Request: fold
Amino acid sequence: MLWTVVAIGTWILHPVSLTAIRLSSPVVFFSLIAHLPSEEFGVLPVAVATASLVALFLIYKSDFGMIQVQAGAYGNERRFLLRIPVSLVLPTLLTWVVLTALFVIADNLFASGLWVGGLVVSLFSAAAIWKFAPQIHRLSLRWLVRVPAGWVLHDGVLLAENLLMRSHNVASLQFAPADTEAIDLSGITYGVPLEISLREMTDVRLTPLLSKVTKTVDALHVKQLLVAPSQVQRVFNT
Reply:
């Protein structure tokens, strides 16, 4: 059933599909790994687990994410998916661990003929998906967007409201130098961020998460800021 979700998501390109795929595929992979000992590491189970590992690797490549989020773009709009903040990596991993454990337990109960227990755990699985899916989906809605009027930082995880930077107000875009004094709106992540310099001071409203990470107040006036698109080089090519 989860692989069906993944298959449909690769056919219908959209940020919602990206969330469904990235939420389901790790659960499928770890579930298959957990069942390998009971399958005595047969050729077919090992092959299926290997295929799921390859799929998992490809699904989490930035190219795949860019295709999915761009498919939901409106008009003359170019979306660049942002990298996940370091502070959200562990909660995301724990989400997959919980979902995987619930699915494996439910599967084992059904296989043992304990249908009532399997149904109860399945209900817990559905409740966990209902709880965690919206949080995971917010990661698929974090973009730096090129629009005719300029640039928009669309990030409901770290920003209390979208940040519009009009073309006439953008002085430069470049890889951030090591000694940059720009405010970090990436939430701290891996790789070299993109530094955007503005001609005029601009108001930025932060969520409590980013305020805590940056150790600042929730409303700032900035002239330089850092963002972290998953493919920075493509930003320069737009």
Summary: Residues 143-236 form one domain.
